[in-house]
Specification:
This is Carboxynorspermidine decarboxylase. This protein has helices at about 15-30, 50-55, 65-75, 90-95, 105-115, 175-195, 215-230, 240, 270, 275-280, 365-370; strands spanning about 10-15, 35-40, 60, 75-80, 100, 120-125, 165, 200, 230-235, 245-255, 260-265, 295-300, 310-315, 325-330, 350-355, 360-365. It is an alpha/beta fold and about 375 residues long. The radius of gyration is 22 Å and the shape is elongated.
C-alpha cells in the first residue's frame, strides 16, 4: 500500500533511511576496525534485524529478554549489561551472550566463575565521573548518586583476574567532542589498567548519523585506544541506527476549545511517545510550525484521561479538520520499545516503507494484546 493508505496510528520505518544510517556506521567500522553493535533499548524492530546484521557486528542488551531477542533474531555477537543480574537468569545469560559486563565488583565476584566456565568475555563498567550533558540528569549516568559503574575510589585491581574489558556509557544524543572529553577522564582515572585489557566499550549515546556529527574526532578516539593500548574498540549506539528514519502517522478525531484550539488525536504522548513527557521534547511534525508561527495554532493531545497527555502546540497554514492525517518525524527510536496500553489505548500498527516507497504493515495489535498484559 501507499503511505497515505496506512491505518492510524501507525509507526512507519523507512528502509532507505535505515540503510543510509547503517552505511555511515559501517563506514566507521571499515575505516577503524572498531565494532558497532545495536543497542536494542532504542530500537528493537526485529523485522529489520536481517538488514542491520549485514552492516553491524551484533546487538547489545540490558537484560535477559533483550539478549534472547538479539541472539535469536540477529545471531551475531550478543553483549549484555545490567546493573545487577538475577541468579535465576544468569545461566541462560551465560549460554547466549559473548560479552557479559558487570556493574560492580560484588556482581563480578558473584558470577565471574560461571561466565568464565561458559567461555565468555567479562567486562566491568566504570564511572569516569565526567558529566557532559546539559540539563538531562535523568539520562546522565555520571550524575551524583548514579547506579552505574565503579568509581575510581572504589576500584579493586586485585579482583581484575578474568576481566578482559572495561565499559563506560556516559553520553545521550551527543557529538564526538563529548566522547573525547569523557575519554580523557577515563584515561586519567583508569588508564593504568587499560594496558591489561583486551577491549574497551565506549557505550552508547553517540549521534553518529546526525548531519553535524564529527566523524573524524570519533575515529581519532577509536584509534587512540587501539594504538596506545592495543585495545579492540566497541561502540553500542541505539538511536544512530534509526535516527530520523521513522514516522508516526496519526489522525485528528475531534476538535475542542478551552482558551486555545485543541485537536484530539488517535495517538498519545503518554502511550506512544512517552519521551515527549519524560525527556521532555517537542517531536517534529511535518507541515507545521511553532506555536503562533503559522495562522492556525492547535494543542495536540491524546485520548487518555491524563490531563498532561499533550504532544505539544503546533501551528498550521490551514485549520485542522476531523479526519486530517498528521505525520510526526523521528519516531523509530524510543517509541515502539516504550509503548504502553494505559487506559486501554490500542498500540499503533508497525509498517515498513521499502526503497520504492511501498508500505507493508508488519504488525498490528488489538484487544488481546492489552488483555494479555493483565491478570
Amino acid at each position: 500500500m501507499r503511505f497515505e493508505e496506512l491505518p492510524t496510528p501507525c509507526y512507519v520505518v523507512d528502509e532507505k533511511l535505515i540503510v543510509r544510517n547503517l552505511e555511515i556506521l559501517n563506514g566507521v567500522m571499515q575505516r577503524t576496525g572498531a565494532k558497532i553493535v545495536l543497542a536494542q533499548k532504542a530500537f528493537s524492530m526485529t523485522s529489520m534485524y536481517p538488514l542491520i546484521g549485514k552492516y553491524l557486528s551484533g546487538t547489545t542488551a540490558s537484560g535477559l529478554y533483550e539478549a534472547r531477542l538479539g541472539n535469536e533474531e540477529m545471531g551475531k555477537e550478543t553483549h549484555v549489561f545490567a546493573p545487577a543480574y538475577r541468579e535465576d537468569e544468569i545461566d541462560e545469560i551465560v549460554s547466549i551472550c559473548d560479552h557479559i559486563i558487570f556493574n560492580s565488583f560484588s556482581q563480578l565476584e558473584k558470577f565471574k566463575s560461571k561466565a568464565l566456565q561458559g567461555g565468555r568475555k567479562i567486562g566491568l563498567r566504570i564511572n569516569p565521573e565526567c558529566s557532559t550533558q546539559d540539563g538531562h540528569e535523568i539520562y546522565d549516568p555520571c550524575s551524583p548518586g548514579s547506579r552505574f559503574g565503579v568509581k575510581r575510589e572504589d576500584f579493586r585491581p586485585d579482583l581484575l583476574d578474568g576481566v578482559t574489558g572495561l565499559h563506560f556509557h556516559t553520553l545521550c544524543q551527543q557529538n564526538s567532542d563529548d566522547l573525547k572529553t569523557t575519554l580523557d577522564a577515563v584515561e586519567e582515572k583508569f588508564g593504568e589498567w587499560l594496558s591489561q585489557m583486551e577491549w574497551i566499550n565506549f557505550g552508547g549515546g553517540h549521534h553518529i548519523t546526525r548531519e553535524d556529527y564529527d566523524l573524524a574526532t570519533l575515529e581519532s578516539c577509536i584509534k587512540r585506544m587501539q594504538d596506545k593500548y592495543g585495545l579492540e574498540v566497541y561502540l553500542e549506539p541505539g538511536e544512530a541506527i534509526a535516527l530520523n528514519a521513522g514516522y508516526l502517522v496519526t489522525s485528528v478525531l475531534d476538535l475542542h476549545k478551552n482558551g486555545i484550539d485543541i485537536a484530539i488525536m488517535d495517538t498519545s504522548a503518554t502511550c506512544h511517545m512517552p519521551d515527549v513527557l519524560e525527556m521532555p521534547y517537542r517531536p517534529p511534525l511535518f507541515g507545521s510550525g511553532e506555536s503562533g508561527e503559522k495562522e492556525f495554532t492547535y494543542r495536540l493531545g491524546g485520548q487518555t484521561c491524563l490531563t498532561g497527555d499533550v504532544i505539544g502546540d503546533y501551528s498550521f497554514d490551514q485549520p485542522l479538520k476531523t479526519g486530517d492525517r498528521l505525520v510526526f518525524g523521528d519516531m523509530a527510536i524510543y517509541t515502539m520499545v516504550k509503548t504502553n496500553t494505559f487506559n486501554g489505548m490500542p498500540l499503533p500498527a508497525i509498517a515498513v516503507q521499502d526503497r520504492d516507497g511501498d508500505c507493508k504493515v508488519v504488525r498490528t495489535f488489538g484487544y488481546e494484546d492489552f488483555k494479555g498484559r493483565l491478570a
